[in-house]
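Exercise 7b. Backbone tokens:
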């Protein structure tokens, strides 16, 4: 298709072309091309009348290298005040041609109604020049117009006294010269009213049905929409109401809401007024500010109001209304750049010798220089600027002296402001609102926005002369239009985030929403209690967000993690037992339960859980659940969907029976419920409701407690759910050509995609969805990189994260990709996030039309091999397992949960595989909880002790596996593993004692070292004993706290008799946890407890104290160096006001460790000397550096000076 060579006329719409150089098209020129000297070329088309334009097409200049590759499209009714056309995404730029002959069509998403069109080239062929042929598609546009001068109105009187409607459709188009004014008003005596008005250039709709309270209150609530509606351009309004449901549409933006009031009809008395609210009996007097501007095509329920007024119909009263639209010449200028835009105008003295400047401005930016001029008296100058949304006028009299005046509150660029200031001083020739021009200085941010109505000393400034270069100077300006754009319309901030903006971008304030991110899209909370468990949390109250980034708000629940199953508990308003009397089937007792979560949140929680249950405790006396004659229910409960349920706790849905019938233990087997026996004594039909699709209980109805002696007692427990079906919802892909397919992603404006994967393959596509041109894809592009790519019409965008370790290591890795209108991001595990901002003027919507492919592509190439689980898109979890069951090459689930992660179970806890997930076996760990991370702590007093007796003689060598034994033998080492934590203020103190059947023992004592310090220190101790002391030793028992055995040496006995006062926590001896066993199995014959023991959380508190104190200690304490170089090793101890030490003792038991004190005197002198030396060395190092935890090794070697009866003492 070729456009006509002669382009001054068009085949579809006739009109005239005018160029920016004011010359018409030349015949046989092959198209329009401006002069090379034209700074800002444009091509203007006069259609001779208002036309509804639906499409445009462009082509380059015939037979040349001239074409336009990008342009703006402006339209106008007058040819003076122009408005830029923006496409559906708010994009103003149109894509043009790539050669001189091709035709590029653009169908307009919303039509243009105007007489003039202007094509403004932005880019053109770099090897040629601007060349353009255009064609416009559309049809004639006819309208009925009314002009309101600010004192006029139209009154439409009803044929009857009042008009009552349940459905209304009101439509009109308007353009306003001011930011305030009433467009429509009607009211009734019963409190009904409807008002449509402009307020601060936004459209506000007040609507109320049958609620007299709101009529007389000052708290009327308006629904507001759109902004900048006083720009003197046409805007369309459509109000649609059916009963209480209302749709308000302004231009292309629609808001849905439900109106206030008790009724469904709008009753208006006598009349509707348009353009103002006149006072009854006082023509020309109005309650509120009238509308000043033009309306067209004003329809009320199909009635053309303006047409009736033009034809002077009796039901219409028109006061001072004319039927043609006057066009004021208010021409705006746009300052495009905050760094280089300026307008320079000449300033002359007024007749009084003073200086006055007047103009109007509009901006979004809170800061910017509006005006600057030098005064005749050097170096004085005057500056007017916006600072923190306030106007500030500064008179600089010298470099050090200035005067300031501030005015205005929260301008924010949302209103037009008029400024008038007179100075009786000589002024410089020019007034420059920006930058250094002809001596003007601008050290601050330049103004970015719109200005109009310039006058200096009461002389209007003709900006056409400036544009033509005949007056003043300028740079980076756009004449005849205000290019300000409301970037908060529509509001892209989600979940109640507050939108604010500058000229070029918008910002979202997510404070208090529970969400984060550039558009408040991402929930800051986990989706379930199960997810909190995986982060290592313990029981407590948590906010969960079951639908993630979906529309539901977070809710507070209690997470019970003390069992193998993690329970989510949701309470309601009546958890205490309630006694019921005096109810009948005609007047039953009814209780409605209000939960701490909304019905929508409860539904999301229940549907996402593996199982839910709710206990119903029901006791009765002469109160039946079912009528014994016909079986009709006398009492029932209501489920989450509002359905009546007649089965009771423990039985199956749909059957009118109780749990005793299922268990066959009803007190009277002639009935299916105990209460139906109708006895004078109390009966019980308590049970648990576990059919989760019916939970929770929303209401209970009791109807048989009105007889003498009849009563019922009930209690509905909280809703309890466990499991998260999404956490381990997985699929395994084992063929490269296989994939799972799902419906098209609904992700036009925002999409967050998260999942876990593990693989051994070097690459593969995780998911892909494509459209005609747009696409979105996440893939493993190499063993070390994950890539997120998409295209929304601005060209492909690629984000990649590279890992320093392979990602195809058969371990679970987390991926989260997000794309919004503001930015895109990619996260892989704990690697640094990658962010990329979206272009401020680019396309916004991701348009997809194919299926979503998971684990592959539509082309069956580059498929993923491995496992994917927990795939969530915009808060919705995809059921991979369900799709995998019916897809070849893919299997449901993914084996190896435990092998896929190294941090699921802690502190020697054992990970056990389940069909969908895992559990932690903490039986051989000193810790408890779902992840073996909760410390087991006990507070001791002086008389307390815990003794754990081993079931059989416990051997060093028998305690090792074959592999471990071979390792120890290879390294000539054997030993025992001990670990515990303690906190005390006592010294000396007996901490732990291990005794054998051969009267050997190990004793760990907190010794006194004479130092006074308040520091908190965490120490690790590892002890190794080397041959030849690897003889058989049979361990008998382990004691914590006070020891009364008299077979130990005197110093040990003295410490043992004083016992231990403080906290012991997480005690581990090889695979045994004696302290934990003592708490859980106090009745066991293996456990002996003396004195008073109190379970506490002192271990966790101590950990917290350590954490806060370590930063201060780090610069003062050094690492403990190897301190055992001889048979006798003594390390100076540290005793503080609060001593907290973690000991890891790895010892190979010799035939002796601590025994009777024989042959010790020969070694005691040498031992004390060595102790003193090491204490001195330790103090020097302690003053030098600090380390939060210590691990020290002790080696006991063979020595000629040693005997089998030696006692070895080690201090730390």
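Sequence design result:
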């Amino acid at each position: 298709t070729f456009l006509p060579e002669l382009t001054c006329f068009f085949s579809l719409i006739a009109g005239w072309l005018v160029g920016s150089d004011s010359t018409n098209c030349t015949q046989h020129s092959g198209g329009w091309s401006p002069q090379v000297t034209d700074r800002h070329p444009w091509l203007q088309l006069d259609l001779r009348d208002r036309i509804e334009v639906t499409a445009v097409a462009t082509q380059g200049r015939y037979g040349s290298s001239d074409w336009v590759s990008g342009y703006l499209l402006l339209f106008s009714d007058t040819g003076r005040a122009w408005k830029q056309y923006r496409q559906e995404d708010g994009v103003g730029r149109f894509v043009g041609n790539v050669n001189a002959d091709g035709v590029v069509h653009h169908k307009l998403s919303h039509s243009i109604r105007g007489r003039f069109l202007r094509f403004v080239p932005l880019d053109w062929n770099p090897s040629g020049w601007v060349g353009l042929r255009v064609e416009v598609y559309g049809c004639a546009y006819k309208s009925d117009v009314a002009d309101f001068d600010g004192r006029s109105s139209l009154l439409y009187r009803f044929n009857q006294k009042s008009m009552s409607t349940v459905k209304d459709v009101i439509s009109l188009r308007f353009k306003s010269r001011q930011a305030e004014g009433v467009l429509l008003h009607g009211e009734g005596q019963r409190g009904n009213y409807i008002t449509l008005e402009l307020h601060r250039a936004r459209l506000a709709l007040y609507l109320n049905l049958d609620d007299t309270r709101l009529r007389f209150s000052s708290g009327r609530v308006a629904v507001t929409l759109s902004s900048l509606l006083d720009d003197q351009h046409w805007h369309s309004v459509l109000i649609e109401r059916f009963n209480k449901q209302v749709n308000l549409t302004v231009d292309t933006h629609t808001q849905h809401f439900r109106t206030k009031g008790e009724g469904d009809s709008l009753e208006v008395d006598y009349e509707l007024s348009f353009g103002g609210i006149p006072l009854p009996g006082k023509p020309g007097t109005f309650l509120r500010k009238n509308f000043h501007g033009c309306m067209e095509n004003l329809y009320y329920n199909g009635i053309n109001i303006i047409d009736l007024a033009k034809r002077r119909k009796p039901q219409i009263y028109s006061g001072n209304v004319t039927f043609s639209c006057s066009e004021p010449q208010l021409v705006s200028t746009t300052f495009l750049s905050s760094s280089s835009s300026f307008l320079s105008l000449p300033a002359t003295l007024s007749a009084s010798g003073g200086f006055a400047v007047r103009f109007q401005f509009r901006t979004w930016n809170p800061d910017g220089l509006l005006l600057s001029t030098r005064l005749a008296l050097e170096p004085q100058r005057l500056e007017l600027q916006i600072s923190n949304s306030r106007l500030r006028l500064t008179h600089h009299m010298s470099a050090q002296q200035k005067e300031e005046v501030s005015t205005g509150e929260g301008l924010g660029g949302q209103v037009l402001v008029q400024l008038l200031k007179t100075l009786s001083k000589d002024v410089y020739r020019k007034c420059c609102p920006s930058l250094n021009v002809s001596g003007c200085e601008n050290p601050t941010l330049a103004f970015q926005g719109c200005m109009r109505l310039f006058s200096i000393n009461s002389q209007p400034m003709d900006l056409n002369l400036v544009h033509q270069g005949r007056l003043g100077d300028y740079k980076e300006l756009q004449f005849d239009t205000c290019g300000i754009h409301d970037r908060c319309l529509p509001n892209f901030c989600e979940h109640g985030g507050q939108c604010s903006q500058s000229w070029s971008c918008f910002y979202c304030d997510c404070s208090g929403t529970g969400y984060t991110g550039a558009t408040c899209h991402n929930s800051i909370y986990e989706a379930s209690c199960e997810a909190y468990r995986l982060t290592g949390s313990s029981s407590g109250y948590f906010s969960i967000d079951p639908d993630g980034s979906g529309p539901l708000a977070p809710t507070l629940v209690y997470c019970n993690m003390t069992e193998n199953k993690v329970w989510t508990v949701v309470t309601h308003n009546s958890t205490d037992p309630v006694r019921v009397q005096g109810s009948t089937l005609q007047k039953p007792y009814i209780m409605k339960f209000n939960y701490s979560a909304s019905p929508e949140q409860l539904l999301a929680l229940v549907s996402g859980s593996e199982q839910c249950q709710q206990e119903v405790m029901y006791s009765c006396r002469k109160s039946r659940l079912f009528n014994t004659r016909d079986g009709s229910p006398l009492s029932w409960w209501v489920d989450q969907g509002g359905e009546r349920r007649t089965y009771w706790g423990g039985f199956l849905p749909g059957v009118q029976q109780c749990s005793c019938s299922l268990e066959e233990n009803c007190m009277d087997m002639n009935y299916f419920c105990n209460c139906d026996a109708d006895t004078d004594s109390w009966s019980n039909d308590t049970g648990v409701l576990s059919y989760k699709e019916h939970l929770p209980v929303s209401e209970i109805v009791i109807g048989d407690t009105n007889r003498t002696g009849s009563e019922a007692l009930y209690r509905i427990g909280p809703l309890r759910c466990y499991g998260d079906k999404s956490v381990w919802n997985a699929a395994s892909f084992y063929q490269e050509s296989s994939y799972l397919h799902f419906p098209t992603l609904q992700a036009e404006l925002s999409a967050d995609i998260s999942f876990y994967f593990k693989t051994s393959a070097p690459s593969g596509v995780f998911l892909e969805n494509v459209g005609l041109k747009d696409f979105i894809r996440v893939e493993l592009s190499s063993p070390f990189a994950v890539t997120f790519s998409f295209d929304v019409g601005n060209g492909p965008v690629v984000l990649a994260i590279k890992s320093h370790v392979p990602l195809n290591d058969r371990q679970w890795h987390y991926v989260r990709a997000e794309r919004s209108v503001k930015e895109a991001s990619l996260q892989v595990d704990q690697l640094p996030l990658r962010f990329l901002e979206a272009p401020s003027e680019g396309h916004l919507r991701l348009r997809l039309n194919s299926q979503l492919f998971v684990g592959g592509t539509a082309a069956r190439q580059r498929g993923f091999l491995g496992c994917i689980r927990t795939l969530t898109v915009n808060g919705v979890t995809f059921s991979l397992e369900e799709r995998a069951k019916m897809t070849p090459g893919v299997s449901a689930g993914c084996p190896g949960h435990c092998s896929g992660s190294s941090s699921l179970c802690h502190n020697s806890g054992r990970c056990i595989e389940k069909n969908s997930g895992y559990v932690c076996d903490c039986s051989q760990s000193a810790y408890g909880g779902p992840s073996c991370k909760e410390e087991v702590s006990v507070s001791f007093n002086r008389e307390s002790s815990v003794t754990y007796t081993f079931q059989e003689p416990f051997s060093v060598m028998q305690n090792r596996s074959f592999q471990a034994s071979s390792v120890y033998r290879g390294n000539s080492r054997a030993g025992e593993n001990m670990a515990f934590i303690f906190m005390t203020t006592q010294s000396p103190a007996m901490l732990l004692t291990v005794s054998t059947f051969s009267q050997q023992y190990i004793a760990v004592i907190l010794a006194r070292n004479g130092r006074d310090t308040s520091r908190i220190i965490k120490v690790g101790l590892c002890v190794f004993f080397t041959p030849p002391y690897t003889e058989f030793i049979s361990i008998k028992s382990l004691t914590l706290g006070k020891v009364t055995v008299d077979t130990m040496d005197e110093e040990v006995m003295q410490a043992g008799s004083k016992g231990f006062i403080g906290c012991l926590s997480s005690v581990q001896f090889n695979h045994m946890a004696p302290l934990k066993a003592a708490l859980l199995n106090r009745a066991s014959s293996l456990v002996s407890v003396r004195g008073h023991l109190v379970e506490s959380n002192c271990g966790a508190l101590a950990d917290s104290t350590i954490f806060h104190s370590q930063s201060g200690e780090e610069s003062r304490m050094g690492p403990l160096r190897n301190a055992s170089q001889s048979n006798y090793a003594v390390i100076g101890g540290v005793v503080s006001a609060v001593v907290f030490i973690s000991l890891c003792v790895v010892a190979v038991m010799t035939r002796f460790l601590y025994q009777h004190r024989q042959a010790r005197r020969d070694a005691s002198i040498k031992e004390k000397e060595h102790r003193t030396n090491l204490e001195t060395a330790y103090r020097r190092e302690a003053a030098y550096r600090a380390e939060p935890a210590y691990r020290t090794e002790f080696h006991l070697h063979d020595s000629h000076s040693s005997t089998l009866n030696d006692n070895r003492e080690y201090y730390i």
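Instructor comment: The CA atoms of residues 375 and 427 lie 4 Å apart. The chain has a mean pLDDT of 78.
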